[in-house]
Each structure stands twice: as C-alpha cells, then as structure tokens.
Amino acid sequence: MTVGRVWFFADIRRVVRGLEMAGDMVWLKRTARWRHAARRGATAVEMAIIAPVFFMMLMGTVEMCLMMGAQQILENAAFNTARLAKTGYTGSGETQAQTVTQILDNELKAYGSMLDPNNVTVTETAYSDFSNAGTNTGGTSGYGTQQQIVAYTFTYPWKLFTPMMSEIIGTNGIVNLTSTIVVRNEPYG
Asked: Staple 138 to which of 6, 106, 125, 132, CB 3.0 to 4.6 Å?
C-alpha cells in the first residue's frame, strides 16, 4: 500500500516538472483506474447500510397513511349510519338494528375492501341528556327512543403489516380505530 503511494507521488512529481513521457502517462492512467476500482464497491456497501432503514421508514409511512385513510372511512361511515339511525327509520320487515347494520355495511363496502364490515363493532348507548353522554354512567344500551341522546361508538381492529410499527404502536400488531358520534334522536313516532 505504501509502495503504491510512493510511486504515485513520484509520478505526479514527474508530470508537474514537465516530464510527460508516454510511459509516464500510461502509468498515471493505470493508477487512476486502480484508485477508481478501489472505490467501486463503496456505493453497494452504503446502499446495504441505508436501504433497510429507508424501506422500513417508507413502509411505515405508507402504513400510517393507510391507517389514517381507514380512520376517515370509518368516521364517514359512522356519521352516515348515526344520521340514519337518529331518524328511527327501519326498512320494510327489518328491525332498527338490522337497518343500521345494513347501512353501515353499504357505507364501508362503498370504499372497497379496505375495511371488512364484519370486523366493525358498534356500541350504542342512550342517555336522557347531553350532560351524561360520553361519561359511561347513566346510559342504557340500545338506540334509545325519540328525543334521547345516543352515543354510537364504531371500533375496527386494524392489523399492522409492518413489523417495526407493531412494536411501536398497537397491541399484538393491532390498532383499534375508533369513531364516536353523539346525536339526539328526532321526534319520530
């Protein structure tokens, strides 16, 4: 290694002094090629070090974006379902629970296969006034009657596909996406 450097510097001194003989130029070109060849593998090594981190960050970003999109879909479906449920509307030959479930399924299926309607859990709790809504006290399970306050909670278990993300957020690789809508039932009858 030291000998190569000595020859290289000796050759540079000759060029600087104006002794540009044909043999010296050939040797200088060979030395430049050798130095370039010695650095050729550096890019591969750098890529091998950076690529796993880069791709994990990229996958984590994509996963977070998908999760935020799924949350928005769940909130939109929850809003439209609660909006229908507060009217007391029931389909012909159906109960209110069946009608609400059908509307929720239709809302979620409209966005494709991102959320499975079978995995969505809906909890309805009716309250007599807004002061108790959301406190988990004084409510009764169900859709309530006219003029009652109803809190609808929609929960979807989102399965994480990035191993590192499941270590950071969630429990056992699952994050519960939740949307809660509080409405007052209309005076239906």
From this structure: 132
Type of residue numbered 28: L
For 126-149, write each residue's pLDDT tens digit: 998 887 776 777 788 888 888 889
Contacts of 156 (CB under 8 A, 6+ apart): 70, 74, 115, 119, 120, 121, 176, 177, 178
Q: Which residues pair with 177 in a beta bridge?
A: 156
Distance of alpha carbon 103 from alpha carbon 93, whole angstroms: 15
First-to-last C-alpha distance (Å) of the chain: 95
Q: Which positions of the chain have pLDDT values less than 70? A: 1-40, 134, 189
Q: What would the two tokens of residue 111 be?
A: 């966005």
